[in-house]
Write a structure and sequence with these properties.
By secondary structure, this protein is an all-alpha fold. The protein has one domain. Helices cover about 75% and strands about 0% of the residues. Helix 3 crosses helix 4. The relative contact order is 0.16.
Length: about 150
């Protein structure tokens, strides 16, 4: 028997992730920010070792979560599985990962007759996500003078 409390707990975490991250994103990128605000935002994620540590942590966890969300979503035959990583990387992984977990809890309540599998498009998409994350990691590593 599945724990029924997980679904609402994950939804609350998703809403908290959305509110907390976007309150800060809007404060940074809001009125008065110029056309280079996004470049400034990325530069500010590597200004010191503490910022780089958090940025590296989020990138690696987000990368692993993206792979797992697509694989697990396909296995559970969940709809719109690519929406979670796409919204996570463009908006807030702190919102989409708990949202995925909530929707997964719902999917686990009705077991599929046949497990789904990854398709070619999924492989290409995961390759693109990996390239994107590797580029961001390289930017951070270079800023940290680690290589």
């Amino acid at each position: 028997m599945r724990e029924r409390f997980l679904f609402p707990v994950f939804l609350v975490l998703a809403l908290a992730g959305l509110a907390l991250t976007w309150s800060q994103n809007l404060a940074y990128l809001g009125p008065g920010s110029g056309p280079g605000a996004m470049a400034d935002f990325l530069s500010d994620t590597v200004v010191n070792p503490a910022a780089r540590s958090i940025a590296f942590d989020i990138l690696i966890v987000g990368w692993a979560a993206s792979i797992w969300m697509v694989v697990e979503g396909r296995r559970r035959r969940m709809r719109w599985v690519w929406l979670y990583p796409l919204l996570g990387w463009s908006g807030a992984m702190a919102f989409t990962f708990p949202l995925f977990l909530a929707m997964r809890e719902r999917a686990l309540r009705t077991p599929p007759e046949i497990e789904g599998r990854l398709g070619t498009i999924d492989g290409v998409g995961l390759g693109l996500v990996s390239a994107f994350v590797l580029a961001l990691l390289a930017f951070g590593v270079r800023a940290a003078a680690l290589i």
